[in-house]
Amino acid sequence: MNFNCPGQVVIAGTKKGVQAAIKALKKGGAKRALELPVSAPFHSTLMKPAAKKLAKLLDAVKFADARVPVYANVNAKPVQEAETIKKLLVRQAASPVQWEKSVKRMIKEGFDTFVEVGPGTVLSGFMKKINKDVRCYNVEDVASLESTLNEIGK
Known about the structure:
Layout: E1 2-5, E2 8-10, H1 15-27, H2 48-59, E3 70-72, E4 77-79, H3 82-93, H4 99-108, E5 113-117, H5 122-130, E6 135-139, H6 142-152
Parallel strand pairs: 5-6
Antiparallel strand pairs: 1-2, 3-4
């Protein structure tokens, strides 16, 4: 499950379960309910086997404490301790994404500028629905990196 922004919640489950939920939501008056083309029931308890495999893989990786806080989408809290970050990464595989809570917490703690790294601007769109006053940038190639650096530097 993903709690993305006001008005958008993504559910996860078995194909049959998701289809039943869509039917019930539409019957209940949901403006929009549709099946997303994904390969697995991400961020649900159905991912516990994958989370266990991830834990084993991460055991072999040496993490250092973060220099800046990392906001975990599992609990919408900042963390810097390496072992805690590792544990939260594992939990994240089979837990709901608390994106909206994470963003609101960061804004409450004084953040007003966000950079989305990767193709597209889906997260930036969520950000604007959460708080229209934040500045959002997208970096997906050299040109957008240069543009973002120039804008932030102003």
